[in-house]
Amino acid sequence: MANNTPVKHPYTLAEAVDKLVEEFDERQKAEVALTFHTALYLLHFSLGCHIRRTFGLWAPDSPLRRDCSRVAGQNDLPPDEASRVIIEALWDRLHLQRQDAARI
Question: In the list 2, 20, 45, 51, which could disulfide-bond 83, CB 3.0-4.6 Å?
Answer without folding.
Answer: 51
